[in-house]
Design brief:
heterodimer; A: alpha+beta; 7-stranded mixed β-sheet; 5-stranded mixed β-sheet; B: 392 residues; alpha/beta; 16 helices
Chain lengths: 357, 392
């Protein structure tokens, strides 16, 4: 007689949050790139739109049109202040969408650019942002092909909001998506982390961390991706760790691929000014936003070649291997500390908050 | 960074750990009092590197965790009023009151702002003379001087539209209350270095003597923590119970005289309620009569707000080391980081949240080093303890 297997309790499945159960209205955390953002998408938008293309929930969608494989992406930019060390909302609007397309291996070809302007904003400010968009598009090799402008009443916006959408061709033989990570893969980051988030926070809050040395890393990553694909087409995953930082990105990859990720903390390229600011505020650099970095997951056999290709490129000089994918603890990210201990790097709920102590 | 990197040296950490492993010959339970120390222990994985027989109990020293539900509800009530700008340290925004948090008040139209210093809130008041600006003055002795200075400045500058919602708590009465609790398992304390940098260490020798426990003033970097542990277990193994200062670069015996003077000027000692624990006599500060005009509770007449703690949450027993987080029936089911019943599940270094993550990592494993032979504690089993305890 068969003895029934004892019931296995999966602690990870203990919670069953009903759709947005705790928040009858939108809170800032819904835009933070963490668990609340994911819930909003999975429980509200995806069921409402109901199509298989959307189900991948990537930064861009891979679609086929007239025989061509296209990557298609959209992103909105609501940064405050509009101008910051290293760039402005215009640079972010171009580079962000170019990078979302690049994370599927695509070279961005055309962008749309929609402005939502607040009544009272000086036209010279709008002009500076528009010029930055033009310059960033030229640098990224992408054409701003269409646009739109709306104006809202004074008090109903932060001066300027920008939305960009983009399309680009995905090269043959390339299949880059978070589901493809497998145990044994190597995790690489293309350079120092946390610069954008800390630079913007410093300016916004008047904290003046690392004055003169902290600037946003905003940059187009399509050149860097092209350099990687020249040495191998077998790149499993690419993500740009923007909102929620490297921690959120790695959690998404672990969850989508059902693998575990182990980080080696000592390998993380954290600039001293970022480390100091994070130490002061009780923030973790792993959760801080980046705007010109990518995380690559590649087969171990390709890791050296990919790392060399990254380091040969101006935007990848600081590239480093930061961890690996493992079969243990699927769906979870664990960091090995410098002292030999481990800690769980969880998906942030919403925005990271400065700690009191 | 100079003077910080030196306290992250893995080789030195190894030597300290070797010394601790060599020193410990039997089970000991130490309590690190401060939430900042708990954060550092978890952040660097220090707890996993200590001898199995050495248990670290995460104490009630996280101001976010111990701010009573009633006070959060008062904050929510004030922040919801039109014309109010409510300023707070960031991590208080996510702590649930009754049915909502400050993020949801903000979402519903309340003007809730994160500041990095109470003086920033005073500046908001100066720039918005037609609005009432309230700062949520929570925390231990560490944050009290800046809050006291802010109220002092508000009066000096004649800024009348500023007030403080005060929920200050003091460490020594909490240490005493923990030690007086029946079945107390704590055999030594790592005292909170930043608290002592303000208050000095003069309150501790009497406690060490009365309860025969070593108290080691400890810092927050990994090597600070290991040095604090090393000194505490060395005393325990020798049967000693002294106050030691393992954080001399920040702590003087007499504390910080200007900070103490400002606290003395603005605050007075009062009984204070601790979330999940209850009222501890003389364990907090409130604004003194001379500064009552700056007391938000008084100004907004929220003294009548009364809130019962959720019965299912046993965070108080967790904070006293009486039960482990997973020994609470709500743990991992009704209470998770996503749906926290108590603040120990809210912040990532809260004892319950840390256990929750660890158990997800190793399903089926004991949640952390367990004291040998401990059985699960049924609900109500510690009621007698609580009734007999000065912790309420």
């Amino acid at each position: 007689m068969d003895v029934p297997e004892p019931e296995v309790v999966d602690p990870a499945a203990w919670t069953c949050p009903a759709p947005l159960r705790d928040h009858p209205s939108v809170v800032l955390g819904h835009g933070g790139g963490g668990a609340l953002s994911a819930e909003l998408m999975e429980h509200l938008f995806v069921p409402a739109y109901g199509n298989p293309t959307l189900a991948g929930l990537g930064d861009s969608a891979a679609v086929t049109l007239g025989g061509a494989r296209l990557a298609f992406s959209t992103d909105s930019y609501v940064v405050r202040p509009l101008f910051f060390p290293g760039g402005c909302i215009g640079d972010l609007a171009v580079n962000g969408t170019v990078n979302d397309l690049a994370m599927s291996g695509a070279q961005a070809a055309y962008l749309s650019c929609g402005f939502i302007l607040e009544e009272g904003v000086e036209l010279s400010v709008v002009g500076r942002v528009a010029e930055a968009i033009g310059a960033a598009a030229e640098a990224a090799g992408v054409t701003v092909a269409t646009g739109d402008t709306k104006v809202v009443e004074a008090g109903h916006g932060d001066g300027i909001y920008v939305n960009t959408s983009g399309i680009g061709l995905i090269p043959d033989g390339v299949d880059i998506r978070p589901q493809r990570a497998v145990p044994g893969d190597v995790v690489i980051v293309s350079g120092p982390i946390g610069l954008h988030g800390i630079a913007v926070l410093s300016l916004r809050e008047g904290l003046e961390f690392g004055a003169g040395e902290l600037a946003s890393d905003t940059a187009p990553l399509n050149g860097l991706v092209a350099a990687m694909l020249r040495v191998t087409r077998d790149v499993h995953v690419l993500r740009d760790p923007t909102r929620g930082g490297v921690a959120a990105t790695l959690n998404e990859i672990a969850s989508a691929s059902d693998t575990g990720v182990v980080l080696t903390e000592r390998s993380l390229p954290v600039p001293e000014a970022v480390a100091n600011a994070c130490g002061f505020l009780g923030l973790d650099p792993l959760y801080v936003a980046n705007e010109g970095r990518l995380v690559a997951v590649v087969p171990r056999a390709e890791a050296d070649a990919v790392l060399a290709a990254l380091r040969d490129h101006p935007q990848g000089r600081g590239a480093a291997v930061i961890g690996e994918c493992v079969a243990e603890h699927p769906g979870m990210v664990v960091a090995r500390t410098a002292f030999g201990g481990t800690r769980v790097v969880d998906l942030p709920l919403g925005e990271q908050l400065p700690r009191i102590c | 960074m100079k003077y910080i990197d030196e306290f992250h040296d893995p080789a030195l950490a190894r030597r300290l750990l070797d010394d601790i492993h060599t020193t410990v010959t039997r089970p000991w339970a130490l309590m690190e009092v401060c939430g900042g120390q708990t954060h550092s222990i978890i952040r660097h994985g220090i707890d996993q590197l200590l001898p199995d027989s050495l248990e670290l109990i995460h104490g009630p020293g996280c101001p976010v965790c111990v701010t009573p539900l009633e006070m959060i509800d008062k904050a929510l009530e004030i922040a919801s009023r039109p014309g109010v700008i409510f300023c707070s340290f960031g991590d208080m925004l996510r702590v649930p009151g009754t049915g909502r948090d400050l993020f949801q008040v903000k979402s519903a139209g309340g003007d809730v702002r994160v500041v990095y210093s109470p003086l920033d809130a005073l500046d908001v008041a100066r720039r918005n003379p037609d609005r009432e600006v309230v700062f949520f003055g929570i925390g231990f002795e560490t944050t009290a001087p800046a809050n006291a200075m802010t109220v002092h400045e508000a009066r000096r500058l004649g800024i009348a539209n500023f007030s403080l919602l005060v929920s200050h708590v003091r460490v020594p009465p909490a240490v005493e209350a923990i030690m007086r609790a029946p079945h107390c398992r704590v055999q030594g304390f790592l005292a909170a270095g930043h608290v002592c940098s303000v208050m000095g260490t003069e309150e501790y020798p009497a406690l060490a003597e009365r309860y025969r426990v070593p108290i080691v003033v400890t810092g927050f970097e990994p090597l600070d923590i290991l040095e604090g542990v090393r000194r505490a277990v060395r005393q325990l193994e020798r049967g000693e119970h002294r106050v030691e200062n393992a954080y001399p670069r920040a702590v003087r015996e007499a504390g910080n005289a200007p900070a103490l003077a400002r606290i003395e000027e603005v605050f007075e000692v009062t009984d204070r309620s601790w979330r999940g624990i209850g009222t501890i006599p003389d364990s907090g500060w409130r604004l003194s009569d001379a500064f009552r005009a700056y007391d938000a509770e008084h100004r907004f007449e929220v003294g009548d707000v009364r809130t019962a703690e959720p019965a299912a949450c046993r965070s108080g027993e967790v904070l006293q080391g009486l039960i482990k987080p997973h020994e609470c029936e709500a743990f991992g089911t009704r209470c998770t980081p996503r749906t926290p019943l108590g603040a120990t599940m809210v912040s990532s270094e809260g004892a319950c949240a840390a256990y929750y993550l660890y158990r997800r990592l190793t399903p089926g494993a004991p949640a952390a080093r367990e004291a040998a032979g401990r059985e699960p504690v049924p609900a109500g089993a510690t009621d007698a303890v609580k009734e007999a305890s000065p912790l309420g």
